[in-house]
Amino acid sequence: MSSASPLLYLKLLLVAFFWGGTWIAGRLAVAEAPPLTVASWRFLLAALMLGALLLKREGIPRWRAAEWLGLGILGLTGVFLYNLCFLNALTAVEAGRGALVVAFIPALIALADWLLFRVPMSGRRALGVLLAMSGCLLVVTQGDPGRLFAKGGLGRGEWMLLGTALSWTAYTLASRRYSEHLSPLALAFGGCLCGWVMLTVAALAEGSLFALGHMSWVGTSSIVFLGVFGTAIAFTWYSEGINRIGSTRAAAFINLVPVFAVLLGALLLDERLGSRVLAGGACVIAGVLLTSQFKFSFRSTAKGG
């Protein structure tokens, strides 16, 4: 786990780019449909795509009860709870500001690794996490972190964002545990399938599952992006990263998500970027490099070749 091919790091970089795009796509989608509706259709697309790929590569899965339990935990944390918080937050918080939450995820994971699994916390890694978090704060607050603590600065949307950080931390740690028994593709498909069932049941209970009649091509394409790129592809590559280089290093790339979210927001939503935002982006990149401690090897380290 101390080294990996440059291709793996490129995949994790693209995962950060896709997840940065989900903040824009999610904001556009929930403007036209209820959050549970968006989430259910998103993961239906993802489950179909991942299921077809799993059948082609590994055949029909024959998972034991314990493995189904693990996949249910992944679906609960990384799909159901995360999207419940993520999409509801986007109904109240701007996409760029909402991406703030990802700054805390690597720190939470590193702290959990240190406290629960006794993973060493080097000074360099701790410095990288702090630097990346500081950069993310500059990016999403436009150089004024004090806005987070001002009166009225924390509302329902911010509390929902805290829920996304906690649920994704739990998903990452659970993924690492179950990656010892299932392939990254199986983890991604099983988690999406279980999470989709939970979301669909909730949407049916809410009566909003088929509330798609008045969606424009923008809202529809946003759901497609969320399902295909933001879920099917990104979940598979993220699981592969956890399996090969560990949860803390893989999660370090999450620091780049708000940078991509702000850049895409500038391009697609006409948001303005200032010099402090660009400086924050530079801090994030520097923090990722320090936290990950890159060691490239051109020989594949994936299990099973």
TrEMBL record:
<dbReference type="InterPro" id="IPR000620">
    <property type="entry name" value="EamA_dom"/>
</dbReference>
<feature type="transmembrane region" description="Helical">
    <location>
        <begin position="38"/>
        <end position="56"/>
    </location>
</feature>
<feature type="transmembrane region" description="Helical">
    <location>
        <begin position="275"/>
        <end position="294"/>
    </location>
</feature>
<feature type="transmembrane region" description="Helical">
    <location>
        <begin position="250"/>
        <end position="269"/>
    </location>
</feature>
<feature type="transmembrane region" description="Helical">
    <location>
        <begin position="68"/>
        <end position="93"/>
    </location>
</feature>
<feature type="domain" description="EamA">
    <location>
        <begin position="9"/>
        <end position="140"/>
    </location>
</feature>
<keyword id="KW-0472">Membrane</keyword>
<dbReference type="InterPro" id="IPR037185">
    <property type="entry name" value="EmrE-like"/>
</dbReference>
<protein>
    <submittedName>
        <fullName>Permease of the drug/metabolite transporter (DMT) superfamily</fullName>
    </submittedName>
</protein>
<feature type="transmembrane region" description="Helical">
    <location>
        <begin position="126"/>
        <end position="143"/>
    </location>
</feature>
<feature type="transmembrane region" description="Helical">
    <location>
        <begin position="217"/>
        <end position="238"/>
    </location>
</feature>
<feature type="domain" description="EamA">
    <location>
        <begin position="156"/>
        <end position="292"/>
    </location>
</feature>
<dbReference type="Pfam" id="PF00892">
    <property type="entry name" value="EamA"/>
</dbReference>
<comment type="similarity">
    <text>Belongs to the EamA transporter family.</text>
</comment>
<dbReference type="GO" id="GO:0016020">
    <property type="term" value="C:membrane"/>
</dbReference>
<feature type="transmembrane region" description="Helical">
    <location>
        <begin position="185"/>
        <end position="205"/>
    </location>
</feature>
<feature type="transmembrane region" description="Helical">
    <location>
        <begin position="99"/>
        <end position="117"/>
    </location>
</feature>
<feature type="transmembrane region" description="Helical">
    <location>
        <begin position="7"/>
        <end position="26"/>
    </location>
</feature>
<keyword id="KW-0812">Transmembrane</keyword>
<keyword id="KW-1133">Transmembrane helix</keyword>
<feature type="transmembrane region" description="Helical">
    <location>
        <begin position="155"/>
        <end position="173"/>
    </location>
</feature>
<dbReference type="InterPro" id="IPR050638">
    <property type="entry name" value="AA-Vitamin_Transporters"/>
</dbReference>
